[in-house]
């Protein structure tokens, strides 16, 4: 039954995502949107961590419910809360899913979690160590594809076609987001199109280009007549302060001072974003903001967004991409991306 998602007897489906990255959910959303368009009657549940609820709420057009995941041994995103697993399995069984889809990626434990959801049918990415009980419901994990297309290929395997423009990212805004953005502009004297956002943070050290280099790029932006806004989450305030301290030109530091929705509109109003391979780059793509993304340990084949409005700065060192959270050698993938490289990409976007 390779067309499982189009089977009228399949009325409830669980997509077992189990990821905590903003980019992970944004890049998986086009596949869910395709499923919704093909099967508007289908009840779609997204299984992921409770902390992702603010993002999942933005996906209400294609997700009916978030089923919070408490963690499981072998799923590395967060330490498992083993005492909560029995209740999680019970809640999954109570929903009576007709289909559960392993959409985590390359991890056999995610397949085991998917099988334990109690669904009548199990599908998903087939990886070393796990494949669905019915091989026709599996897709060999497509490592060569962009993250968005990995998921679109998966749902296509299950019967859902990908229409033109199916790979576009979205991040819906709310009236509260717009009020917040107007307030930010008013308080800080920002004019849409008159500022650039510099986002120097990333979740792991191996994806963070040095702060002093971001500062020099930010100064170059300021010399081109743009206001510089430093962005990030609350935990990155020290990093943005370090960038500001290295700059010769003034900057407005808004790290940790916006909501996610407010930050999305801040990006949408920016002339461009300059940052690392992290969630902000995906958010910029979702709201239509041009971007220059510095790729270090990350894989641009998987994560860089296509098109002339998104540019990639990276070195050609043989050890990148890699899975190290901290570089175990000399961090050459970072040292060999020069300030001039990044400024050159900026100039190609804004002239």
From TrEMBL:
<dbReference type="InterPro" id="IPR051199">
    <property type="entry name" value="LPS_LOS_Heptosyltrfase"/>
</dbReference>
<dbReference type="Pfam" id="PF01075">
    <property type="entry name" value="Glyco_transf_9"/>
</dbReference>
<keyword id="KW-0328">Glycosyltransferase</keyword>
<dbReference type="GO" id="GO:0008713">
    <property type="term" value="F:ADP-heptose-lipopolysaccharide heptosyltransferase activity"/>
</dbReference>
<dbReference type="InterPro" id="IPR002201">
    <property type="entry name" value="Glyco_trans_9"/>
</dbReference>
<dbReference type="GO" id="GO:0009244">
    <property type="term" value="P:lipopolysaccharide core region biosynthetic process"/>
</dbReference>
<keyword id="KW-0808">Transferase</keyword>
<dbReference type="GO" id="GO:0005829">
    <property type="term" value="C:cytosol"/>
</dbReference>
<protein>
    <submittedName>
        <fullName>ADP-heptose:LPS heptosyltransferase</fullName>
    </submittedName>
</protein>
